[in-house]
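Task: sequence design from structure.
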């Protein structure tokens, strides 16, 4: 019987185990999943309180998108029987419609429809259409890669890059658009300029790849109700917990918690040697789903050049302060607001969790839940070395931001501050070259190794699940041939 190890029990590792066992059904194999932490889920961590409150410390929702990746997460949730536990944010909800940025000392509502493009809305000095109309006539440049900031400045002007795009990418990557790669973070937009000479022309005349809509009652519900975001009763952690309990039902799958994989090497006869729990074991194949820096540490002794490349993918630490206030304190109903990098504040943005997911609130009375995000690409500049930050300082910064930006002066009755240390991979300029180099090195050496996880080909939960599903389907097919 083939023996396969999966290192890491975050969403990538768990979904890899789930899809690999499914794809190997006719050829039973032993799958051993090794997770260093005390619970499964990686960054997906929710705190649940007796009064019904749920706080998210990592990701807080899955994005409802009509793409292969968006459908992959829905299908997985459906297959493991979670459809009745889904909490969705429908298209008419304020958290779907309204997004703000905080700039020039005010909350600025971003356009909600085409009509807003011809109005002058703060913080912009002209109507957005005035930045856009010249774009199709601007000279295009043949590029290998460029920062998002330079790319958007070239196409639409610096104001759009500085306010709209920097805020958006502080929200998604906790990253700095002056470093993040347009090619790796916004590939379709990059391709539009390369193929059509302009983004607007590309959007109008470009060929649309049709996404196949899976036949599934949950996908149908998602499409007809138009969810923009979704989560679960009990928080996002319900997802990895349920996948893990499904995996436990399979006698061919072994799950280990509190177990660090300490070393990984490859033998001349194409096997993998894994050191964990103080013992060394031989596997026919290994699937790594751990962050790039952790994989680099495992590989550095035998394959230092691959480790050097892996270490070139930076990971940003993100501070998340969850606050809960008595009563309804929000001055506006929306998903939240983001703060562009040109503002002096130390926060990346504030998410209005009680607006998006009222189902994660107290059962007996109204309360307001906020998540204040900070640090990211600026963590060390703002808070010092990530192993020496102070929780009190993070909380102080969060409370000042809620006071200054939302006018909430009351004291919260519940506060939890945590830092996702090296939590979000930064796909900086040149990222795709690093990934190519890592993957082609492993391939050229014919390592029995598959590399998955958020550090390479998409950071969202949807991307991680799709990547694990598709890669495990091919691996399963190869192994059953
Ligand atoms: C604060 C924050 C907010 C986010 N918000 C969102 C959001 O709202 N929506 C969204 O779609 N995405 C969001 N993301 C991104 C998304 O959560 C992550 O990209 C995704 O969870 C990564 O999953 P993963 O399994 O690839 O990696 P991880 O979650 O990092 O899992 C890797 C696992 O490997 C384990 N491990 C590491 N080294 C070893 C070792 N040597 N031996 C054994 N185990 C090891 C770790 O303990 C960990 O459990 C957010 C991320 C963060 C940090």
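Answer:
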């Amino acid at each position: 019987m083939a023996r396969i190890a999966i290192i890491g029990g975050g969403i990538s590792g768990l979904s890899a185990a789930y899809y690999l066992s499914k794809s190997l059904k006719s050829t039973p194999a032993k799958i051993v999943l090794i997770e260093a932490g005390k619970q499964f889920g990686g960054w997906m961590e929710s705190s649940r309180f007796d009064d019904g409150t749920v706080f998210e410390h990592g990701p807080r929702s899955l994005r409802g998108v009509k793409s292969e990746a968006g459908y992959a997460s829905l299908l997985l949730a459906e297959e493991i029987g979670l459809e009745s536990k889904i909490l969705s944010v429908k298209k008419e909800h304020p958290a779907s419609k309204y997004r703000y940025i905080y700039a020039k000392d005010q909350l600025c509502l971003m356009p909600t429809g085409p009509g807003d493009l011809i109005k002058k809305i703060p913080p912009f000095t002209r109507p957005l259409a005035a930045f856009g109309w010249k774009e199709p006539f601007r000279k295009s440049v043949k590029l290998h890669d460029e920062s998002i900031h330079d790319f958007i400045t070239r196409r639409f002007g610096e104001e759009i890059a500085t306010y709209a795009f920097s805020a958006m990418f502080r929200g998604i990557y906790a990253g700095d658009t002056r470093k993040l790669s347009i090619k790796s973070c916004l590939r379709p937009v990059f391709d539009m300029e390369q193929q059509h000479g302009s983004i607007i022309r590309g959007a109008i005349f470009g060929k649309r790849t049709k996404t196949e809509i899976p036949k599934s009652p949950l996908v149908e519900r998602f499409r007809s109700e138009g969810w923009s975001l979704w989560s679960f009763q009990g928080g996002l952690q319900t997802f990895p917990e349920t996948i893990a309990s499904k995996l436990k039902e399979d006698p061919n799958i072994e799950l280990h918690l509190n177990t660090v994989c300490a070393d990984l090497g490859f033998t001349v006869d194409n096997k993998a040697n894994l050191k964990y729990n103080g013992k060394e074991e031989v596997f026919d194949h290994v699937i790594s789903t751990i962050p790039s820096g952790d994989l680099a540490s495992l590989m550095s002794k035998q394959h230092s050049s691959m480790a050097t490349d892996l270490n070139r993918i930076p990971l940003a630490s993100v501070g998340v302060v969850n606050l809960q206030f008595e009563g309804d304190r929000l001055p506006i109903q929306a998903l939240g607001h983001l703060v562009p990098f040109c503002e002096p504040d130390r926060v990346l943005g504030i998410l209005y969790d009680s607006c998006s997911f009222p189902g994660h609130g107290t059962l007996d009375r109204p309360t307001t839940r906020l998540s204040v995000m900070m640090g990211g690409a600026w963590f060390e500049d703002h808070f010092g070395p990530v192993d020496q930050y102070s929780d009190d300082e993070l909380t102080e910064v969060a409370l000042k931001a809620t006071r200054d930006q939302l006018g909430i002066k009351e004291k919260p009755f519940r506060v939890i501050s945590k830092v996702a240390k090296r939590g979000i991979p930064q796909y900086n300029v040149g990222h795709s070259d690093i990934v190519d180099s890592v993957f082609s090195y492993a391939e050229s050496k014919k390592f029995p190794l598959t590399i998955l996880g958020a550090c390479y080909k998409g950071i969202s939960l949807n991307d991680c699940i799709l990547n694990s599903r598709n890669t495990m389907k091919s691996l399963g097919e190869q192994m059953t041939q």
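The mean pLDDT is 97.
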